[in-house]
Amino acid sequence: MLSLIVFLPAAVAAVLAGLPARLPARVFVGAWAAAGLADLALIVAAWVQLPDAPGPSGYMFEERLPWIPSAGISYHLGVDGLSLPLLAMTGVLFLACAVFALRETRRVKAYVLLFLTLQTVCLGLFVALDLILFFLFFDLSIVFMYFVIAGWGHAERARAAALKFFLYTFLGSLALLLGFILLFLAAQPHTFDIVELAAANPLAAGGPYAGLTLLAIGIGLAVKTPTVPFHTWLPPAHTEAPATGSAILAGVLLKMGTYGFVRIAMPLLPASWRHYALVVLLVGVVSVVYGALVALAQTNLKRMIAYTSVNHMGYVLVGVGAAGLVATGDAQARTLATTGALVQMVSHGLITAALFLLAGVLYDRGRTYDFGDWSGLAPRTPRFAALFAIAAFASLGLPGFSGFIAEFQIFTGSLPAAPIPVAIAVTGILITAALFLVALQRLFLGPLRTPDAPGTPRPLADLHPSELVAIAPLLALATLIGLAPRFLLDLVEPAATAVNTLVAR
To answer: How far apart are CA 387 and CA 395, in angstroms?
Structure first.
């Protein structure tokens, strides 16, 4: 089942590649949407059919075949409570982007083929249980996103932004590969299998070698997350990317970094994770406060949303860092912190993808993201204003939305470990509230102003049906998690407990 879920989009891409590009654009985008819907149905079926108890390895629906046996590399897939929610989120976001792209007119065949192959790469990473397989998907995501930004971004600046994105994240992936090789060399017998490495715990004693391994893996994942000071590629990449590219970049690709911390760094390097957990937590606090403050200063809507991603991913690091600090203490606190970090990944993916798609709607109407070019839009675009307000309140962590569930768990589980740094991180919520309220005031209140004719504004189209169908379900899911999170927490909490048990060894 997992191989079918992962490779179905790529198979559809292979079929579409044989069709002439002169066919109507809706043929290609419709095929992408159909593939996304089928893939999401398979993921939901996997969720519903989860066995009552996982297999001996702790994973479900496992698939394992020899790949390069002499190097300890295998084709090993499996899901658990850490990966299945992210797998489902990935399916939802790509389907939303397919629907949003129904109005795309630029080189549609290449655009659809690129996104379908990127979807396979993203799905594959979240079910990979071999470090080299994980690295393969990790690296391919960089390549495909580079072409999305460079090929369908805004003007010439898109190519520079795409190149910066590629160089930064590719350099980070080299550090990640170095860490994986160090883990491989430490294991006896040598292996890249995540399950075997977690069971063997080859670097249980810690020390300089284990610290260097964690540093290499941590840098590689921190660049992709991104955390301060490895975040500088993010704002230009988001600003110049098309709306769908920004939605996938923020919603899915950034989670590859945070997921890697929970799937690889924490369970495979438990002694070093405990030793350096305070450093991870402090980096998270800095990212939270810095990201919120810089977002508050932005005059460009897309750059503002990009910096809120630095802020929200900082909360994830606060949670996983705190779990390492209390690894041998309060079991409930570390489960809360880790569970909150995982829920934050899903929450951020849904909400921020919706915000970037809404920013794409604004750009489509006036070819600018600058706050100074827009004002008083609420009466003319009530549906757009309503969805943007819901997304803004969800992003700032208002109760009733998924962000509140995630941040409440992170702070509750982290306070026993580091009360002062966590109290500082809480101020990020206040700053985030301020920046979104300012954005709402600039865009929707006051006299009507549009970019082309400030004195005599042209008629402004509200959300089209495809835009509404793409964005509204993302916010509905964020609301569902905020009001009734049990269906998600019941899956995540046992997996978070299992990870923290490995960290506490």
So the answer is: 12
Partners of 286 in the β-ladder? none
Q: Cα–chain-centroid distance for residue 289?
A: 19
SS3 content of the chain, % helix, strand, coil (to 5): 75, 5, 20
Q: pLDDT for 150-193, tens place per residue?
A: 999 887 788 999 999 999 999 999 999 999 999 999 999 999 99
3-class DSSP state for residue 330?
Answer: coil
Distance CA 47, CA 419 (A): 37
Asked if residues 181 and 202 have their Cβ atoms less than 8 Å apart, the reply is no
Q: What is the DSSP string of 37-60?
A: HHHHHHHHHHHHT--SS--TTS-E
E-strand ranges in 6-137 read 60-68, 73-79
Amino acid at 412: T
How many CA within 13 A on the CB side of residue 242? Answer: 21
State both tokens at 45: 């079926």
CA distance 136 to 465: 37
Whether the Cβ atoms of residue 266 and residue 379 lie closer than 8 Å to each other: no
- Reading the block at residue 340, the tokens are 């909150």
- As to burial, measured by CB atoms within 10 angstroms (0-12 exposed, 13-18 middle, 19+ buried), residue 306 is buried
- Tell me: the pLDDT tens digits for 117-131? 999 999 999 999 999
How far apart, in whole angstroms, are the C-alpha atoms of residue 269 and residue 288? 25
pLDDT at residue number 458: 62
Alpha-carbon span 224 to 233, nearest angstrom: 10
> What is the model's pTM?
0.95
Count of CB atoms within 10 A of residue 207's CB?
A: 11
CA angle 476–127–228, rounded 5-degree value = 70
Six-digit token string for 360 = 């794409």
